[in-house]
Amino acid sequence: MLSERVYAHLRAAIMRGDHAPGAALKPQDLAREQGVSLAVVREALVRVVGDGLADRLPNRGFAVPALSHRRWQELAEARRTIEPAVLRLSVERGDVGWEADVRAAHHRLARTPAFVPEEGEYYSEAWSEAHRVFHRTLLAGCGNPVLLETSDRLWAASELARRWSAHHGPGRDHLAEHRRLEEAALARDADAAAEALTRHLTLTADGLTQAEAPRTAQHPKAGR
Question: pLDDT truncated to tens, each residue of the chain (224 aa)?
């Protein structure tokens, strides 16, 4: 379907960083690049806004979210509020199939190289996908599609922040953090799992804050 193709292309382009933070997403330019109508592009843009990967600005069209400290801290707060609670439900409700899925997702994540020479300092796309699948699998045992849809949207919106934090923030032992999450979940220790996830999300938010500070100092308007 044409609209699905354009949506997938635009979403991937934003996630790759093809459009700078705060950059305008002009329907006319996108339609010309993709060889489609304005209606198709606008439909794709509305869907990307729904994913939290673009903003719809009054009288100014669409734009990639700006790298503002406030925005990412709000996302981090939302995730710290919702995801540990969903993980608790997963630990309580998840069956043997969920346990096997968590173990497999963690194994894939641990065995996927985070960096590849061709992609420089950036986390590899394969690692990013394995990372997404691991976190999604941890939550999937809750059995509540409404909570999972909410978590998916928050994940997509904060993935931009995670990538920025990963590129420029302080070094972290992701292997150890994810191993603690897996072990606590499979041990059916809801308190430990929720605590590990909260710390994991907090470290990402803190890394972004530290990465943004020198950037904002150089360009004061960037954080407004």
Answer: 788 999 999 999 998 888 888 899 999 999 999 999 999 999 999 999 988 899 998 877 999 988 777 887 888 899 999 999 999 999 999 999 999 999 999 999 999 988 776 655 557 889 989 999 999 999 999 999 999 999 998 998 888 766 665 554 446 788 999 999 999 999 999 999 999 999 998 887 776 666 555 444 443 333 33
CATH number of the domain bearing residue 142: 1.20.120.530
Whether 74 is covered by a domain: the verdict is yes
Asked, for residue 223, whether it belongs to a domain, the answer is: no
Q: Please check whether residues 124 and 196 belong to one and the same domain.
A: yes
Number of H helices and E strands in the chain, helices first, is: 9, 3
Rounded CA gap, 132 and 111, in Å? 14
What is the residue range of 48's domain? Answer: 2-63
Contact predicate 52/153, CB 8 Å: yes
224 domain-assigned: no
pTM, two decimals, is 0.81
Q: What is the DSSP string of 40-97?
A: HHHHHHHHHHHTTSSEEETTTEEEPPP--HHHHHHHHHHHHHHHHHHHHHHHHH--HH
